[in-house]
């Protein structure tokens, strides 16, 4: 017997027929003798409608009221799924964030989970009752409903799994797992059977959209084995994969991964813009004069590259910001021109960040060198580079995205077949 | 300065534009220096959609889950109205049933309010904050959401007014008050400026649809002065009526009504069916043998008339049941034929109950005699009669409804002009 948390997103619960399909997935796990908690999102479209109403009510509005309105979507799904499960003869009840409770901090609209009273749920699971939990929501210190931000149901599911010390958290999604890269760009991309937490964290942070970054962080911190699988699988299909799992990707501790690849995947993000300052004074405090104003304007700076100074007095500095903040960032830099002291500022939104990720890189040298050589052979110019222990990210012209990703995918032996 | 509870139904909050209109009504009362609590229903159509989903999920379903799903409608409206009020510069916050809390019994789907923590709301009202309360909902002894049954927001509003010791509970509805009878039947029907609690209770119980019977009961028990007014009034129109009230009807203690009429109104209900048993044994226990099985089948019996026995051994018995239960009631009676012992059962759904209501009847004899005479002159046959201290109800052939109501309306001097 295992204890399993199952999470279903909005498309999987878009109408009662699909909720019935979800219930059949749940029934299969119950029939196999598992203790089951289910975390659900709002029915597809519901959250968008609720958000639209809050915006129509007032462009800028009280985040506490926003949370009260928007959290109702998951409340509806939880109740409906409980009804459908009961009709199938399965003992089940819905749980709202405030009922368990799932305690969060006070950051309405983007709250972080502080504590989940797992024993309340465990008592019921042990009695054979399925807990159907409204995702995306909790209760703040002010006794009001909080929400975790868009896509927060993934985070709810992993947090519940951690609180229940579940054997696994199954994320049912519209893809059947995590791929070596985006299959729309590289048709020969392979589904990974397993990926380490650290790798998945980099993949999610660097552009792979399968899971919320925060949910992966949480899974890593608490060691929650997280299994990404397709919600379109027939609920009645035999679970024939390794460990009686169907096709999908298990995100787990690297110790669980026997055959480690040097490179596990290639991520890319088009959501970047590059800004370059020429001939900035090369002296202490200059970085603060550049990034202070950007931080004040709530703009996240990602890659930062500062060349070694040629004359010992001036340097060039390049950094990236989210594409949506590009224009605003340029203005901030221009307004701060006097304090910073640069000769020229230029920028471009036509850049892409391509990242090569793999825990095997820790123990293998030469990955970066191979990468630079292969891209040079294709005539792709690298505009900036950053590295960490398990990833190398480069900034290139967006026009070369597909070529670069395919080249690297082949280079590191990730192509299928 | 007064303390006022304002209640708005589903049509009044059907979209953001109408919610803005509601907010303007609230603002007017705030600007006049009043402490204001607002009780809201779900946006028109929302509850029907939610109910339809629960039915699609399972025809027979857990009332606790039903409540969880359906109560979300009022949650959404409360949050949206709070946002709109804030945008108008009015301090406001939403309150859900479990947050105040509004404690109810455990009868999910048709719960009764047990207690409201009024001091929580009062603290805020005294600070000048408008309390926007989700109607129709509370929290049960099991810490789960309960709902009060359809139309329960009226009951929520009156209960909140009682808990806050409010000076008045204003019910904004799609009619501009309580009329002497249904104006669609009697174009010369008059709006009543005031009506006593007891009269309103009879009017509501006997067919007038302006207010939920339970809300009137509650208003009577707690002496909550309840004002029925139109939600279509311009929020900016001067409040020029008596006591600075606009056109509408004040439901109040009879002491507040100076000029008491003998008859205040005529109610009628087509939602009736009549069943007659011929030659029932006239002996102790026979009533129990008839009404026991009906009660077991959850069928409410209303008017009961038992003729004096002619031969001392047999009698005829007539009673009414809700029209929707007519077929089922006939079956129950037929299955119990052996225990009851009757010669013949007959029934008809073509009946209407017409009631004449007025607290003045207590001190005036002859009201019934006048009534029977006037109807006889029109050739209307009375099939059954029941009376109470302040009302006379008769059962007649449905075809005569309009004729009877108009005749009685004129007879008691209720016609306009």
Automatic annotation (TrEMBL), chains A, B:
Pathway: Amino-acid biosynthesis; L-methionine biosynthesis via de novo pathway; L-homoserine from L-aspartate: step 1/3; Amino-acid biosynthesis; L-lysine biosynthesis via DAP pathway; (S)-tetrahydrodipicolinate from L-aspartate: step 1/4; Amino-acid biosynthesis; L-threonine biosynthesis; L-threonine from L-aspartate: step 1/5
Secretion signal, residue range per the UniProt entry: none
Keyword Nucleotide-binding: yes
Gene3D superfamilies for this protein: Acetylglutamate kinase-like, VC0802-like
CDD domains the UniProt entry points to: AAK_AKii-LysC-BS, ACT_AK-LysC-DapG-like_2, ACT_AKii-LysC-BS-like_1
GO molecular function: aspartate kinase activity; ATP binding
Lineage top rank: taxon: Bacteria
One cellular component (GO) term of this entry: cytosol
Residues involved in substrate binding: 47, 74
UniProt domain ACT: residue ranges: 275-347, 356-417
Recorded catalytic activity of this chain's protein: L-aspartate + ATP = 4-phospho-L-aspartate + ADP
GO biological process, one term: homoserine biosynthetic process
Residues that hold ATP according to the record: 7-10, 173-174, 179, 184, 209-210
Main EC class the enzyme belongs to: transferase
InterPro entries registered for this protein in UniProt: AceGlu_kinase-like_sf (IPR036393), ACT-like_dom_sf (IPR045865), ACT_Aspartokinase (IPR054352), ACT_dom (IPR002912), AKii-LysC-BS (IPR041740), Asp/Glu/Uridylate_kinase (IPR001048), Asp_kin_monofn (IPR005260), Asp_kinase (IPR001341)
Keywords from the named record: Amino-acid biosynthesis, ATP-binding, Kinase, Lysine biosynthesis, Nucleotide-binding, Transferase
Pfam families: AA_kinase, ACT_9
EC number assigned by the record: 2.7.2.4
Family named by the database record: Belongs to the aspartokinase family.
Name of the protein in its database record: Aspartokinase
């Amino acid at each position: 017997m295992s204890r399993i948390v199952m999470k279903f997103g909005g498309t999987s619960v878009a109408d009662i027929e699909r909720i019935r399909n979800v219930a059949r997935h749940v029934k299969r796990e119950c029939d196999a003798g598992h203790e089951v908690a289910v975390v659900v999102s709002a029915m597809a479209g519901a959250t968008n409608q609720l958000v639209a109403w809050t915006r129509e009510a007032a462009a800028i509005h009280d985040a506490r009221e926003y949370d009260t309105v928007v959290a109702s979507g998951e409340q509806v799904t939880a109740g409906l799924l409980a009804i459908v499960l009961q009709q199938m003869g399965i003992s089940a009840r819905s749980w709202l964030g405030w009922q368990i409770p799932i305690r969060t901090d006070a950051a309405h609209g983007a709250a972080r989970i502080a504590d989940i009273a797992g024993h309340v749920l465990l008592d019921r699971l042990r009695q054979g009752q399925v807990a159907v939990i409204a995702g995306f929501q909790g209760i703040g210190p002010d006794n009001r409903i909080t929400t975790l931000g868009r896509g927060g149901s993934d985070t709810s599911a992993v947090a519940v799994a951690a609180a229940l010390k579940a054997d696994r958290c199954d994320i049912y999604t519209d893809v059947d797992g995590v791929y070596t890269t985006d299959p729309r760009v590289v048709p020969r991309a392979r589904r990974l059977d397993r990926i380490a937490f650290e790798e998945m964290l980099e993949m999610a942070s660097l552009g792979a959209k399968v899971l919320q970054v925060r949910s992966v962080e949480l899974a890593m911190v608490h060691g929650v084995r997280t299994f990404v699988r397709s919600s379109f699988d027939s609920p009645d299909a035999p679970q024939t994969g390794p460990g009686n799992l169907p096709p999908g990707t298990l995100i787990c501790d690297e110790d669980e991964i026997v055959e480690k690849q040097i490179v596990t995947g290639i991520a890319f993000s088009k959501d970047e813009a590059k800004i370059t300052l020429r001939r900035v004074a090369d002296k202490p405090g200059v970085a603060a004069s550049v990034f202070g104003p950007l931080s004040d304007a709530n703009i996240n700076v990602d890659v930062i590259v500062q060349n070694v100074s040629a004359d010992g007095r001036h340097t060039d500095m390049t950094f990236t910001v989210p594409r949506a903040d590009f224009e605003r960032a340029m203005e901030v830099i221009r307004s701060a021109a006097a304090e910073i002291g640069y000769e020229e500022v230029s920028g471009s939104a036509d850049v892409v960040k391509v990242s090569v990720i793999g825990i095997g890189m820790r123990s293998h040298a030469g990955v970066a060198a191979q990468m630079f050589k292969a891209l040079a052979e294709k005539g792709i110019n690298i505009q900036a580079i950053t590295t960490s222990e398990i990833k190398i990210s480069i900034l290139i012209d967006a026009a070369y995205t597909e070529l670069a990703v395919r080249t690297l995918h082949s280079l590191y032996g990730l192509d299928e077949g």
